[in-house]
Design brief:
Length: 229
């Protein structure tokens, strides 16, 4: 117990030290790098996952292929993919983005697909019956009703990406993983635990932000239905 308290005290000292908040290796700079990798990866993953999920969910075509590809992507080890792409493409942000996008696409794609396909067929038929085009049915009926699951997929992907973007440090790039990798190489566990703590806090912030976003843009009725399901 005393050892745990001592470690927590050391981490507290590390986090509150002024030198950790300034310079190219300070927390703000590393956090900015981490958010850059995470944000870019999530953006590309959302473009892929949402587009395919909405298209396949609305038409019902290619559902088996999409599910198979998504499950295959889940099985790919993120760190192994980073090492492979570094070997092929050289040291750059490309390996990190490729690996993180591959990690983030499946939850977005699957939840978007399931959300759209889960819309009551009678509701779709009623929308078509009043003269809505297929595009209007998708945008005005299916997407709003699928929003809880779509946001769930984005939230899961965002948290996974934020937690896993530490792999950017392994090929020599920056981000919060730099604290962990450097700490391990120096046997500086204060640095390792401190960096890990910042990553955990960032993941919790992402969770809170998505929860708040859900409360703002999802109607109360759909929130209740989603929680019951």
């Amino acid at each position: 117990m005393n050892d745990l308290l001592n470690q927590l005290g050391l981490v507290g000292d590390w986090l509150t030290s002024s030198k950790q908040w300034h310079g190219a290796e300070g927390i703000p700079q590393r956090l900015l790098e981490h958010l850059t990798y995470s944000g870019a990866s999530l953006l590309f993953a959302a473009l892929i996952g949402l587009t395919l999920g909405l298209l396949v969910g609305h038409t019902g075509r290619g559902a088996f292929a999409v599910a198979s590809v998504a499950n295959l992507a889940r099985a790919i080890p993120t760190f192994g993919l980073v090492v492979l792409v570094v070997t092929l493409a050289g040291l750059s942000t490309t390996p990190v983005l490729v690996a993180l996008v591959a990690l983030a696409v499946p939850p977005i794609l699957i939840n978007t697909f399931e959300g759209v396909r889960g819309v009551d067929p009678a509701t779709r038929d009623a929308a078509r019956g009043v003269g809505m085009t297929e595009w209007e049915v998708l945008v005005r009926v299916e997407v709003p009703m699928a929003l809880p699951l779509i946001l769930l997929g984005l939230r899961v992907a965002a948290i996974q990406v934020v937690a896993t973007a530490t792999v950017a440090a392994y090929p020599g790039l920056g981000g919060l993983g730099r604290f962990i990798v450097d700490g391990l190489s120096r046997n500086d566990y204060e640095l390792v635990i401190g960096g890990s703590t910042v990553v955990v806090v960032l993941a919790l912030v992402v969770q809170i932000l998505f929860t708040a976003l859900r409360r703002v843009i999802v109607s109360p009725g759909l929130r209740v239905s989603a929680s019951k399901s």
